[in-house]
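Task: sequence design from structure.
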């Protein structure tokens, strides 16, 4: 399934000054990698973000945030952000 191209363009613009930004198709969407590590991505209309471990629980309580779980088991350190509020 295609990812949200409008969101992809915003992420590209945000990271445009970073020299080592890579885009890879993963998880049925598009991932953005800095220095070989995934920092964020798009799956359908959901933003996937890597967060600092010490902020994970706090950020998980924010509206529109939930655990990133593709297989039913959450991937610690990553969140899905639902983007209904984004547009």
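Answer:
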């Amino acid at each position: 399934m295609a990812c949200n191209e409008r969101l992809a363009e915003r992420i590209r613009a945000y990271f445009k000054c970073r020299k080592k930004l890579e885009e890879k198709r993963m998880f049925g969407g598009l991932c953005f990698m800095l220095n070989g590590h995934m920092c964020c991505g798009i799956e359908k209309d959901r933003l996937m973000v890597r967060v600092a471990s010490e902020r994970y629980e706090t950020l998980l309580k924010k509206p529109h945030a939930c655990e990133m779980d593709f297989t039913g088991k959450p991937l610690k350190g990553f969140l899905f952000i639902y983007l209904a509020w984004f547009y």
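The first strand starts at residue 21 and ends at 26.
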